[in-house]
Amino acid sequence: MMLAFFENRNRVRIIISLLVISLQLFNLGGFAQKLNKEYTTPSGLKYTITKKGKGEKPVPGDNVRVHYSGKFADGKIFDSSYKRGAPITFKLGKGQVIKGWDEGIAFLTVGGQAKFEIPPSLGYGDKPMGEISAGSTLYFDVELVEIVNPPIPFDVKGKDTLSLESGLKYIKINSTDGKPAEAFKTVSVDYTGFLLNGNIFDSSVERGIPFSFTLGKGQVIQGWEQGIAKLKVGEKARMIIPSNLGYGSRDMGSIPPNSTLIFDVELLEVK
After folding, report:
1. In this structure, are 97 and 187 located in the same domain?
2. CATH of the domain at 43
3. Which residues have a catalytic role annotated?
4. Which of 38, 41, 64, 62 is nearest to 49 (CA)?
5. Which candidate, 137, 136, 107, places its Cα nearest to that of 38?
6. Beta-ladder partners of 149
7. How confident is the model at residue 16, as a pLDDT?
8. Which domain holds residue 140?
9. Cβ proximity of 89 and 75 under 8 Å
10. pLDDT of the chain along its 271 residues, tens only?
């Protein structure tokens, strides 16, 4: 009898373990999905894989680049990256997009396409968002274009560190004969911002969209005003910005108060 008890208990453990693994695989999109078959997740998301990709599957924390068209039930398009000619980039599973997207994109592999039917609880809920009425069910055609690798910090070994009287430090990575950045000109810059512990707090490289501003107009922090002015088009540099030339004692969310900021920047254009 005692032997039978232990055997039954082991069977139960095995069954529970299999159920847990199955649930984890389902939540991660790890089961064999059939093409053009609609699935409904426990949260209420409905999705249909319309094209299987041949690339990797993203995991939470990955930066993903996605093309999409958003529609209402009557087929009217309310937003489309295809029309704008550029996909959007966001960090998966970090609440940067609606819940239905965070859940649904995780089922795709790079190159894959799908249709989402997103209930209000996974969309904008009871909040109106422009032409999206409160309580709307949303329909999306999506394509996972790319998983964007995190930016690699510039190699500054053997490079001179230059200092300004203001306290700004910068390290030139290369030199060019490009057009210099000038006051009151519009400059286009690719950048990645790091804290001293190496954590990335912002990156145009990850988004795939350079940042443009008018130099000398106070549109950016003083460290940027002074540092970008030292560059020519095509040049890269690391800027080490003390807090008084950054955000000072302000709490900027991912940037704690009184933080020294490190930016790897590339000047792309001056016009």
Report:
1. no
2. 3.10.50.40
3. 191, 201-202, 221, 247, 263
4. 38
5. 107
6. none
7. 42
8. 33-148
9. no
10. 333 433 444 454 454 444 434 444 444 444 568 999 999 999 999 999 999 999 999 999 999 999 999 999 999 999 999 999 999 999 999 999 999 999 999 999 999 999 999 999 999 999 999 999 999 999 999 999 999 988 999 999 999 999 999 999 999 999 999 999 999 999 999 999 999 999 999 999 988 889 999 999 999 999 999 999 999 999 999 999 999 999 999 999 999 999 999 999 999 999 9
**Is there a domain that residue 25 lies in?**
no
Q: At a CB cut-off of 8 Å and minimum separation 6, what does 35 contact?
A: 49, 50, 51, 52
Beta strands in 97-245 (DSSP E): 113-118, 138-148, 162-163, 169-172, 186-194, 200-203, 211-214, 236-241
Whole-Å CA distances, 131 to 100, 114, 149, 163, 227? 19, 24, 34, 51, 41
7 lies in some domain: no
Of 97, 120, 148, which residue is a domain's last? Answer: 148
